[in-house]
Amino acid sequence: MRWINIFPLFLLLAAGGVQARQVQITGHAEGFAPESLVRVLTYADQFSHLEKTLATTRTDSAGNFSLTFPVKQTTYAMLAINLKRTGFYLKPEAVYNFTIAQ
């Protein structure tokens, strides 16, 4: 009987932990042309490595960029500027600052 009373509370708490939280990425791209494409990618399918774009922006005239987007759980991602990439782990509510040189 006690299990029946606790189970709905458990479901409420578990569902609250799956909400997406904002991630903020700022950075500077040295040696890249102004308006270079900046993307945050992840794998939609780990088996085939099919990529999924989480966020996109372009660098300003000084090479700076900023992205804010929701993430539900810690996941492996790639920051791509034009054809250059680096991998890192995205964590919900995290703030990242990258300096990428060509």
Q: How many helices does DSSP assign?
A: 1
Average pLDDT rating: 89
CATH topology label: Immunoglobulin-like
CATH architecture verdict: Sandwich
| Helix content bin | 10-25%
Globally, the shape reads elongated
The helix/strand class is: mainly beta
Order of helices and strands: HEEEEEEE
Number of domains: 1
The fraction of residues in strands falls at over 45%
Biggest beta-sheet profile? 4 strands, antiparallel
Q: Which residues form runs of ≥5 with pLDDT under 50?
A: none
CATH superfamily: Carboxypeptidase-like, regulatory domain
Backbone CA Rg = 18 Å
* Termini separation: 64 Å
In short:
The chain is mostly beta strands.
Descriptive account of the structure:
The chain is built from one helix and seven strands. It has one domain: Immunoglobulin-like, CATH 2.60.40.1120. The protein has one helix spanning 2-16, and strands at residues 21-30, 37-45, 50-58, 64-71, 75-81, 84-90, 95-101. Strands 3-2-5-6 form a four-stranded antiparallel sheet, with no helix packed on it. It has a three-stranded mixed sheet with strand order 4-1-7, with no helix packed on it. The termini are far apart. It is mainly beta and 102 residues long. It is elongated, with a radius of gyration of 18 Å.
